Amino acid sequence: MSARPEAFDPIAEARRQWLDHGWSDAAPGMTLVTSVNRAQQLLEARVESVLRPFALSFARFEVLRLLAFTREGRMPMQSAVRRLQVHPTSVTSTVDRLVRAGLVTREPHPTDGRATVLAITDAGRELVERATTALNRDAFAETGLEEAELTELVRIIALLRKRSGDFEDPRPAAEPL
């Protein structure tokens, strides 16, 4: 992140260069990808700065928050992988760090000897509650966008995700007899 804002928009300049080089069919997509990547960098920097005092990365926070949302504070590792939408190796690495910190434990699955259940500890629950309060206050409540803008941006990103195969609309429920 720059100490002070640029005098011009580097992404707009990149778009101009794309157009000047005859890549007009790809310029909108390049602009989208570059803009989303930059926005992600800005959002991640803000979130990471809020989580730093808690010695948490956003990945570790997400695992703790996911477990804290469950009724019993536990879930199978494979369920966590699916819900977090990241590679199993990444979740394993994240969980390893949480286990070393005493925030999560691994337990044998009650019916599948090959599976592992993740469980949040009391220390993990206390930490994630404090971290969530800080994130809500210092990162999530004030994004720099108005509520209507946020809603529209999330809608558009969800459309992109859906068209990319990230999720399907839920099937309509059958009418009661």
From TrEMBL:
Residues 29-162 form the HTH marR-type domain. The keyword Transcription regulation applies. The keyword Zinc-finger does not apply. One of its GO terms (molecular function) is DNA-binding transcription factor activity. One of its GO terms (biological process) is response to stress. Pfam families: MarR_2. This is Transcriptional regulator, MarR family protein. It comes from the Bacteria. SUPFAM superfamilies: Winged helix' DNA-binding domain (SSF46785). Keywords: DNA-binding, Transcription, Transcription regulation.
